Amino acid sequence: MPSDKPPVLIHIQELKKEIKDLRGDITIIKDMLIRYSQVEQNPPVMVEKPDVPFLKSSQSPQRGWFW
Fold first, then answer.
1. pLDDT, tens digit (0-9, with 9 covering 90-100), for 22-59
2. CA 57 to CA 52: how far, in whole Å?
């Protein structure tokens, strides 16, 4: 179906759509980098270690477990 617009204008409109999509992607990446830099400057502190019974050195794995 022929369009009444010249091919150059159609190409420019497609480029504008792609630029709009790229701006959204850039915004997402920028937000991720900002969050990463904030976490890097203020790393989370673990208050206590989780209690994992099979990691204690005083206990051996139960019989039949395959490690």
1. 999 999 999 999 988 888 787 777 667 666 655 555 55
2. 11
Closest CA to 10 of 24, 18, 23, 26: 18
- The owner of tokens 């630029």 is 19
Chain position carrying tokens 């005083």: 58
* Closest to 21 measured CA to CA, from 10, 9, 29, 33: 29
- Tokens 């830099």 belong to 37
CA 31, 34, 37, 39 dihedral sign is negative
Query: The tokens 């890097």 sit on which residue?
Result: 40
Model confidence, pTM:
0.45
Q: What is the 3-state secondary structure (H, E, C) of 26-57?
A: HHHHHHHHHHHHHHHHCCCCCCCCCCCHHHCC
